[in-house]
């Protein structure tokens, strides 16, 4: 039996919530924008009226205003959006336990087993829409299909407040004429590559020989072909929406260019200290160390290497970073900015491979760094310093506090 | 035009007169339900709720709020009372 998968997308989510709470702006063009003073003055979401004026997500406020002079600009209230997201999820939970969040406003639901109780996928979708509208005052577009990829396509086809069914019988007529870029995972660069080989629609993709796609895109080629043909069988994994941390990094553009290995060493320790402290604060450990270098001519390189075990100690991160650095930089140019990032992170209480030989040393290092965290939180960041940092005080800094950039989109 | 980025909107925010927060005296039952008993209006008048005839989660588009909605009978007339988080509100008829 075919699965019944829904993909629900809350229409203009941020803007809808704002319009709901402020009836007086409902009939005006509204854009939810980040704050201009912290240089995040871009449109995060807009309502339908603003959309008619051509206001797009991602453009600057002044751009949006020039298209739409009467635009009402609203500050985002993430806590409110998160609250709504949870309440919508509560509604979904009445119909199935298989709910996979995709961002704050999208969810996949596997209702295959629930169809015996609540009727067909379309019935459930309509009931969900009705309830979301009645109980929360916002609208959703829901796609109903037999796999996740087509369900997502369906939710994009009719907006707002609509149900679109794509069945095994009619997907060729409904899905195949759509441009390939409508499909999930076909971004701008894949689209360009597809264009180059004469594939414009999802149908083209589905009818292309998988081997041919594989030759151009590697394994992804076959995956895209599977998606386009509706063979995708990836399950809806019960997944809460949580802003998961994929890596922790810091970079600094220094007051003067770095021109010796010693300079880099100082900066590496400054940055590794900060990265390690932030890893520990989030109870994480990481295994891959990446460095990024912007040279004085603004050219940019990134290199990475893997540690033998997960770590959150700054000395291990710094040593690895310096090792990667010495292998990848020839000092033909001076360095303008330097960054260290730790990725491949796990929770710190996760089990790891123990070693017979150097575990005690590592443990003591870790404890030492935790003590330093404690001292710093009481007496300030500069109360305990590495000796190497005293050599060149102009390169010293406290990126944890002095160099924080808040992401524009907090939950993505 | 407006001085600050959000000034235009901030000025309008106070225009939302449809959502009126009210003081409520409620009973907390043994099984965890909340039953509103008396609504106190802004001007000091208070109204006894004779009966709660329906309880469900609902949005008020007019007031711009959502939560648990109580359909209350007061002096023979039906009116809606919402509990949003920990605040009670009604949508004003004006």
Kindly describe this structure.
The complex is a heterodimer of chains A (412) and B (94). Chain A has helices at 13-21, 48-52, 61-67, 78-92, 115-118, 121-136, 148-157, 171-174, 188-196, 202-207, 210-217, 219-228, 261-281, 314-328, 359-379, 399-402; strands at residues 5-10, 30-33, 43-46, 72-74, 99-101, 106-110, 140-145, 163-165, 247-258, 284-295, 300-311, 335-343, 346-347. Chain A has 412 residues and is α+β, with helices and mostly antiparallel strands. In chain A, helix 4 packs across helix 6 (121-136) and helix 13 (261-281) crosses helix 14. Chain A is globular. The two termini of chain A are 35 Å apart. Chain B is mainly beta and 94 residues long. Helix content of chain B is 7%, strand content 56%. Chain B is built from 1 helix and 7 strands; from the N terminus they run αβββββββ. Chain B has a 7-stranded antiparallel sheet with strand order 3-2-1-7-6-5-4, with no helix packed on it. The longest helix of chain B has 7 residues, at 7-13. At the A-B interface, strand 4 and helix 6 of A face helix 1 and strand 4 of B.
Average pLDDT, all residues of chain A: 86
* Strands ordered across the widest β-sheet of chain A: 5-6-1-7-8
Low-confidence stretches of chain A: 403-412
How would you write the strand order of the largest sheet of chain B?
3-2-1-7-6-5-4
Percent in strands of chain B: over 45%
* H/E series of chain A: EHEEHHEHEEHHEHEHHHHHEHEEHEEHH
* Helix proportion of chain B: under 10%
The arrangement of helices and strands of chain B along the chain is HEEEEEEE
Into which percentage range does the β-strand content of chain A fall?
Answer: 15-25%
Which class of secondary structure composition applies to the elements of chain B? mainly beta
Query: Count of helices of chain A?
Result: 16
Q: Report the strand count of chain A.
A: 13
Question: What would the principal axes of the Cα set say about the shape of chain B?
Answer: globular
Classify the secondary structure makeup of chain A into a structural class. alpha+beta
Largest sheet of chain A: 5 strands, mixed
What is the oligomer described by this structure?
Answer: heterodimer
How many β strands of chain B by DSSP? Answer: 7
């Amino acid at each position: 039996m075919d699965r019944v998968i829904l993909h629900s997308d809350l229409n203009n989510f941020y803007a809808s919530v704002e319009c709901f709470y402020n009836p007086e702006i409902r009939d005006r063009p509204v854009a939810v924008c980040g704050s201009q003073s912290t240089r995040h003055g871009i449109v995060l979401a807009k309502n339908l009226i603003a959309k008619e004026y051509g206001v797009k997500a991602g453009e600057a406020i002044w751009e949006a205003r020039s298209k739409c002079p009467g635009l009402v600009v609203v500050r985002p209230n993430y806590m409110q959006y998160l609250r709504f997201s949870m309440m919508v999820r509560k509604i979904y939970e009445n119909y199935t336990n298989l709910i996979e969040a995709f961002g704050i406003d999208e969810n996949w639901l596997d209702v295959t087993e629930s169809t015996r109780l609540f009727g067909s996928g379309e019935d459930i979708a309509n009931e969900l829409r009705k309830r979301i509208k009645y109980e929360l005052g916002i609208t959703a577009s829901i796609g109903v299909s037999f796999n996740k990829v087509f369900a997502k396509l369906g939710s994009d086809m009719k907006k707002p407040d609509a149900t679109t069914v794509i069945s095994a019988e009619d997907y060729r007529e409904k899905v195949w004429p759509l441009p390939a870029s409508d499909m999930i995972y076909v971004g701008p660069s894949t689209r360009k590559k597809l264009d180059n080989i004469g594939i414009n629609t999802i149908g083209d993709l589905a009818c292309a020989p998988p081997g041919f796609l594989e030759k151009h895109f590697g394994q992804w080629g076959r995956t895209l072909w599977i998606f386009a043909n509706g063979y995708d069988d990836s399950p809806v994994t019960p997944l809460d929406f949580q802003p998961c941390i994929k890596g922790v990094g810091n970079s600094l553009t220094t007051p003067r260019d770095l021109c010796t290995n010693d300079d880099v060493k100082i900066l590496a320790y400054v940055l590794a200290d900060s990265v390690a402290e932030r890893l520990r604060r989030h109870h994480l450990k990481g295994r891959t160390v990446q460095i990024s270098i912007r040279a004085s001519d603004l050219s940019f390189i990134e290199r990475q290497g893997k540690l033998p075990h997960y770590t959150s100690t700054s000395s291990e991160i710094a040593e690895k970073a310096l090792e990667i650095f010495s292998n990848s930089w020839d000092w033909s140019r001076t360095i303008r900015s330097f960054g260290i990032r730790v990725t491949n992170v796990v929770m710190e209480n996760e089990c790891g491979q123990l070693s017979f030989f150097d575990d005690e040393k590592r443990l003591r290092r870790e404890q030492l760094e935790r003590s330093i965290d404690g001292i710093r939180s009481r007496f300030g960041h500069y109360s305990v310093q590495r000796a190497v940092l005293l050599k060149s005080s102009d390169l010293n800094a406290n990126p944890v506090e002095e160099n924080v950039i808040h992401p524009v989109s907090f939950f993505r | 035009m407006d001085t600050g980025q959000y000034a235009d909107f901030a000025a309008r925010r106070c225009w939302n007169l449809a959502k009126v927060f009210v003081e409520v005296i409620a009973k907390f039952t043994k099984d965890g339900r909340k039953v509103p008993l008396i609504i106190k209006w802004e001007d000091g008048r208070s109204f006894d709720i004779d009966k709660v005839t329906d309880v469900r989660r609902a949005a008020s588009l007019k007031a711009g709020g959502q939560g648990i909605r109580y359909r209350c009978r007061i002096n023979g007339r039906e009116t809606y009372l919402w509990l949003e988080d920990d605040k009670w509100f009604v949508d004003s008829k004006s």
